[in-house]
Request: fold
Amino acid sequence: MERKGRVGALFTTIFILLGFVNITSCLGKLSLVPSPKTFEQGSTEIRVLNPCKFTIQPENTQTKDLIASSLNVTSIADFFPELDCKNQANDLLSLVSASNVVSSTLIAEVDTNPVHGDEGYELSLTEQKFSLKFGTRLGFLHGIATFIQLVQSRTINSRVYYSLENLPIKITDKPSYSHRGIMINTARHHLSLRTLRKLLRGMFLSKLNKLHWVIADRYGISIELPSVPTLAVETAPKGRYYKFADVQEIVKLASSYGIQVIPEFNAPGRTHYFDFTKDYKDIVSCADTFMLCLEPVCGQINPLEEKTYTVVKNILQDLEKAFSDGILHLGGNDINPACWEYDSKVVSALNAKKMSVEDLGRVFLERERQLLTTTKQAIYWHDSPYTKPDDILQYWHNFQGFESYIKDHQVKNKIIVSFYDFLRLDCGQGGLYGNNEVWCGGYKTWEKIASLNLRLSVGDGQILGAEGMFESDVMDGFNIENNVWPRAFVLADRLWGDAITNLTEAKDRYNGFNQFLRRQGFHPSPL
Reply:
């Protein structure tokens, strides 16, 4: 594209109209989560804001197209549940005279040559001008999320009003890590669509951008698959599963918030649920045992059975349709060769082929990979027996062993870290069988997460980021929210910025964000 001599073409302007009244007061410093890269603010100015008047007026087609898929965040009124837009104008006018009501314009500029990366933005709020500059839709979303957090809720004479305080404000911001996620598992306990929608909303506000969704586990598969329609019906936990259209709705909503949903289909381990079906019992080995697996219930699909690949191909193609971003998590861990040794059919076939039972995991994963059609990027757990050099690995073992794992195995792949002693966030509350899950380090406090060290002796840029893991052994829609928050937004803060060195300052910010989430209708645990 020709850019010389056309500086004006680098920017596209949209106008966001805000209704204000003017008052002043002495204020304390504002704080944000995640903490921006640079944050300059004044001390005394307050502008009272009417969120009901917030509108976006794209100046041209380019800008309209850019923000069209972000319609869930173009009305900040939606982020103030107590707000009554029908009466808000009258409430504002009752505080001051009508002559003091002014309008202001937030100018948002689309930079076609962004200096702050895909997710960066610049936000400037002064007496004369409000502006937001961003390079992509992601930067726009992050800037809006920050703007929403800057809107303060105040009460005068029992009436709530909203203000922008401590003007002038200037923020220049971008994340340190591109992968900032949480993992949920709906194959253990079902989460309602309402819970999933609310989770995505909280992720948007805290700038988490990856939802790792485990859709199948030993106990069942939790989404409807059109090519294998009976699978969810016969195996879903307590018969509760997501319709294919529900999954597409969640993926679309997540995208509108700037969040990528990554489904995990882990095989050949963790596939006992095929034994619950009428049509696929015959592809499962050792289903009638209890001690031949790392974690009951036992059972693994047979990599030497051709029927196995027919059903797996159908599953993968349906996942590629529902989750169209071109990325799948294929698991690949928790494979137990002893399970196949228990299956006489497998042993006979191995003897005929002169193969070892230890080879079967790799055999399956390599063949599975050939069944993919639109997937451009695969993620595997780090202990998978099969990966390619351009695959992403997710490391779940403890922090202490990470650097030696990278060195000993000469790992060059990009890495997502989920150290179980820092980021296995469902531990410490009991497990499926009543134990305390001591192996994974007990309950992880927010201080533990904030202290996470990612400046490790690995390749430059090799660590993409991290995920907090909520395996849902003892979590469902009734308690997952106060388990996720505040710890997930502490992780978001850690991954967005640099190391958190002042826990006292951090706690003040986190308490403020906790209160912000509560005003949004969330129920986070106290710090």
Remarks:
- The radius of gyration is 25 Å.
- Confidence is low (pLDDT under 50) at residues 1-16, 21-26, 89-103.
